[in-house]
């Protein structure tokens, strides 16, 4: 697919910012949040509008362009890439909500951002015209830079039975942010807790995950681009894998640069760049990174082609997206580990990209979307002809 001039301008703007993001890495770790200046600069490039509907000032860009920008940002700083990815993808989901909800978010300010926490740790009860929502949600990355939040919640009827799983769109005045983010990796993401005291959420501000599992949403009535017909889980799980692949890309670049300058005292002053075993590690790592990226993007392209032809995306492909997403994450982390182990003691120093990428990538690995066994079991079971719930993917 041809990249639009608008999307190319965003990518060019993002790449110009990479040295600055890298310089701010220590500041982000110290603050435990992406610096406000970085978010403002990303906003100015148009990054956060890549997946936003044109009706509200967005670009409705190719998702591969969005992922490419995320990968590049993460190659400079993992936390900035992670927050850019998860906050930047939310306009795609908002486009699936009823237009009333979209108007509430972007009607007065088209630069409004949303964070999220999808694990259904809160509770929603059916009420006239909507739901009563309450609870606590964890790991809402970038929430300090957002004025709305998307929360996952199980819906209970009056008998206490679960009748649905929905996403609830909640404005800033109806939730609290609790600062709990003291961690060893992705420190700069500010992935704090969200607390909601019981509050009423109109039905138009909710979205059934069962519906999105079928590639449907009321917002498609006004946002009819093929972009909004792709599977929710394909778009969102790729959003979690891409920053980690970006971290591997950045780690690879720093490792090669370090080895070109490194003299190995333990090997009679041998230059590391002349070590054949070091060359093998570089070759293997670069292949793993390239394979992770190529498979992830190829699957998205295949889904796009089917949507463009008006065809249903088969379950096998949707499960393959998950297969290659979790394995792409694994490949990226394996590459980082391989390079980190061979980089020498200087890679341990605070301020180096390599040690930070090592910590950040392993922190990202524990995200539920990166659970490899479950995703791989689902793919294998489907290949054997066992029934798999399509709503999950």
TrEMBL record:
<dbReference type="InterPro" id="IPR054617">
    <property type="entry name" value="HsaA"/>
</dbReference>
<feature type="domain" description="Acyl-CoA dehydrogenase/oxidase N-terminal">
    <location>
        <begin position="5"/>
        <end position="106"/>
    </location>
</feature>
<dbReference type="InterPro" id="IPR036250">
    <property type="entry name" value="AcylCo_DH-like_C"/>
</dbReference>
<dbReference type="InterPro" id="IPR037069">
    <property type="entry name" value="AcylCoA_DH/ox_N_sf"/>
</dbReference>
<dbReference type="InterPro" id="IPR013107">
    <property type="entry name" value="Acyl-CoA_DH_C"/>
</dbReference>
<dbReference type="InterPro" id="IPR046373">
    <property type="entry name" value="Acyl-CoA_Oxase/DH_mid-dom_sf"/>
</dbReference>
<keyword id="KW-0560">Oxidoreductase</keyword>
<dbReference type="GO" id="GO:0005737">
    <property type="term" value="C:cytoplasm"/>
</dbReference>
<dbReference type="Pfam" id="PF08028">
    <property type="entry name" value="Acyl-CoA_dh_2"/>
</dbReference>
<dbReference type="InterPro" id="IPR050741">
    <property type="entry name" value="Acyl-CoA_dehydrogenase"/>
</dbReference>
<keyword id="KW-0503">Monooxygenase</keyword>
<dbReference type="GO" id="GO:0016712">
    <property type="term" value="F:oxidoreductase activity, acting on paired donors, with incorporation or reduction of molecular oxygen, reduced flavin or flavoprotein as one donor, and incorporation of one atom of oxygen"/>
</dbReference>
<dbReference type="GO" id="GO:0050660">
    <property type="term" value="F:flavin adenine dinucleotide binding"/>
</dbReference>
<comment type="similarity">
    <text>Belongs to the HpaH/HsaA monooxygenase family.</text>
</comment>
<dbReference type="InterPro" id="IPR013786">
    <property type="entry name" value="AcylCoA_DH/ox_N"/>
</dbReference>
<dbReference type="GO" id="GO:0033539">
    <property type="term" value="P:fatty acid beta-oxidation using acyl-CoA dehydrogenase"/>
</dbReference>
<dbReference type="InterPro" id="IPR009100">
    <property type="entry name" value="AcylCoA_DH/oxidase_NM_dom_sf"/>
</dbReference>
<feature type="domain" description="Acyl-CoA dehydrogenase C-terminal">
    <location>
        <begin position="239"/>
        <end position="371"/>
    </location>
</feature>
<dbReference type="GO" id="GO:0003995">
    <property type="term" value="F:acyl-CoA dehydrogenase activity"/>
</dbReference>
<protein>
    <submittedName>
        <fullName>Flavin-dependent monooxygenase</fullName>
    </submittedName>
</protein>
<dbReference type="Pfam" id="PF02771">
    <property type="entry name" value="Acyl-CoA_dh_N"/>
</dbReference>
